[in-house]
Amino acid sequence: MTDITPTAQNPTPNGPVAAAILSCGLGCFFLGVLAVAADGSKALAAALNFSNPSGPLSGVTTVAIALWLLCWAILAARWRNKSVAFGKITGAAFTLLALSLLLTFPPFGDLFLGR
Amino acid sequence: MEITLRELISAIHGMLFGGFFLMALFGAIVLLLSTHSDSPTPTPRWQTFYLIAMVVLGWAAVLSGAYIIYPWYRALAPAGADLALYPKALLTAHPTTAGWHSFGMEWKEHVAWIAPMAATMVAFVLLKQRAAWNAHRQVRATVLGFAAAAFLAAAIAGGWGAMINKKAPVQGGQTYQLMGSAK
Question: Number of C-alpha atoms within 13 angstroms, CB side, residue A60?
Answer without folding.
Answer: 29
